[in-house]
TrEMBL record:
Keywords, in A-Z order: Catecholamine metabolism, Methyltransferase, S-adenosyl-L-methionine, Transferase
EC number(s) given by UniProt: 2.1.1.6
Pfam families for the chain: Methyltransf_3
Cross-referenced InterPro entries: SAM-dependent_MTases_sf, SAM_O-MeTrfase
Family the entry assigns: Belongs to the class I-like SAM-binding methyltransferase superfamily. Cation-dependent O-methyltransferase family.
Keyword field contains Ligase: no
Protein's UniProt name: catechol O-methyltransferase
The organism of origin for this protein: Lineolata rhizophorae
Keyword Amino-acid biosynthesis found: no
Length: 289
């Protein structure tokens, strides 16, 4: 595994690490630069400016350079017509990956789904600065509601080619199952899930690494016993999230257990240097019932 270059580390994460005014401070930092006119329309320069804030001012929960390169390589390979990200924050990944989609497939669209309207507003300003507004579409709302709304509006066409999961950890599996049920995730679709080591997402990894037989068995059990937030997520994590966004009910979805996945972990680093990884999952086919 590669080593982390400490000279590019973001500031430490600290107890409070977002939604304390730093997102708007970032906008002032970027738009207040003396060279602002030279970075307009240049996604690489805008990403660099966001990195500079994270390195010199305050930590930002961005995917960062190292894990970002893993997903950018995947985009170059898949050349998605439709790419969707769950969790957009201030637009770092939307700019980095939106530019990669535009390069790989000029007709491609990148949907960035973000629950927090303030973060989405920051993201919109930076995406516009990067000159990517024709490719990147920011959708405000909870990911499951946005997925359903965009599906019903026909925004995705037949399928999601590439999905980047980077939002509330318990929702990775339920949103994937929702996409499976809507047949947006189907043979040919590829998934890239962030933070599967830090803070970790054992239920998601178990799901995408399961065989069809194992998933069918789990569905039968779920139909008997129902589902909820997996007990492997700490109650502290769940309580903190509920304090911010209110009580969240996770839908009792069964997904499509017949989909055949091939999944592997690519180890890498958080922008702060902490070890993490991206799980890359390819939908290879579908078993008949
Ligand atoms: C780790 S950040 C995303 C970072 C971003 N992908 C990047 O690398 O630049 C997670 C984001 O997910 C958003 N989020 C959390 N739960 C969500 C949900 N259910 N639907 C949509 N967004 C959600 C949070 O508001 C936060 O902005």
């Amino acid at each position: 595994m590669a080593t982390f270059d400490k000279s590019k580390a973001y500031q430490d994460q600290d107890q409070v690490f977002f939604d304390d005014g730093r997102e708007v401070e970032l906008l002032h930092f970027v738009f207040g630069r003396p060279d602002i006119d030279s970075i307009r329309g240049n996604p690489t320069a805008v990403v660099k400016a966001i990195d500079e804030y994270g390195r010199t001012k305050k930590y930002l929960m961005n995917v960062g350079e190292d894990k970002g390169a893993i997903v950018s390589n995947l985009i170059a390979e898949v050349k998605p017509r439709i790419m969707v990200e769950l969790g957009g924050y201030v637009g770092y990944s939307a700019i980095l990956f939106g530019a990669a989609v535009r390069k790989a497939n000029p007709q491609g669209k990148y949907y960035s789904l973000e629950r927090n309207p303030e973060f989405a507003a920051v993201s919109g300003a930076l995406v516009n600065l990067a000159g990517l507004s024709d490719t990147v579409k920011i959708e405000v709302g909870s990911s499951d509601a946005s997925l359903k709304r965009l599906y019903e509006a026909g925004a995705f066409g037949d399928q999601i080619d590439l999905m980047f999961l980077d939002h509330w950890k318990p929702a990775y599996t339920t949103d994937l199952k929702l996409c499976e049920e809507l047949r947006l995730v189907r043979p040919g679709s590829v998934l890239a899930a962030d933070n599967v080591i830090k803070p970790g997402n054992p239920p998601y990894l178990e799901y995408v690494r399961s065989s069809v037989g194992e998933k069918r068995k789990a569905v039968a059990e779920q139909k008997k016993n129902g589902s909820g937030v997996d007990e492997r997520f700490s109650s502290k994590q769940a309580t903190m999230y509920e304090k911010r966004v209110g009580k969240v009910e996770l839908a009792n979805l069964v997904g499509n257990p017949n989909l055949i996945y091939e999944s592997k972990l690519i180890e890498s680093f958080e922008p702060s240097g902490v070890a993490d990884g991206v799980e890359i999952t390819r939908c290879m086919g579908e078993e008949s019932q």
